[in-house]
Amino acid sequence: MKTRHVTLSPKASFSLSLFAGLIEEGRLRKGWTRDELADRVGVGIVTLRQVAKGSPRVAIGTYFEAAALVGVSLFTDNLDTLKREHATQRERLTLLPKRARRQPQDPIDDDF
């Protein structure tokens, strides 16, 4: 199988690296080996090593699961608050158009 290449902006790359570092820090604070965390997340050790490196090829859900397990706060630790925020965000989405449309461009004025 061909490996796909993912190119991230510098900001996204730095953010992913930071997230990976927070997960690694949480793992070490809990005293878990990478094998233990991989088992808890439900992935192989190779995937967890990629998480620790901040690889953009790993599914975001894997990052979120690892983060939640080691205690990295994603949004809030309170499930009720998280549910309330989710409902509020869904309500905001209903107020927006269902899809984005390209904005019409002004006609070119080439009359000199």
TrEMBL record:
<dbReference type="GO" id="GO:0003677">
    <property type="term" value="F:DNA binding"/>
</dbReference>
<dbReference type="InterPro" id="IPR010982">
    <property type="entry name" value="Lambda_DNA-bd_dom_sf"/>
</dbReference>
<protein>
    <submittedName>
        <fullName>Helix-turn-helix</fullName>
    </submittedName>
</protein>
<feature type="domain" description="HTH cro/C1-type">
    <location>
        <begin position="23"/>
        <end position="74"/>
    </location>
</feature>
<feature type="region of interest" description="Disordered">
    <location>
        <begin position="93"/>
        <end position="112"/>
    </location>
</feature>
<dbReference type="Pfam" id="PF01381">
    <property type="entry name" value="HTH_3"/>
</dbReference>
<dbReference type="InterPro" id="IPR001387">
    <property type="entry name" value="Cro/C1-type_HTH"/>
</dbReference>
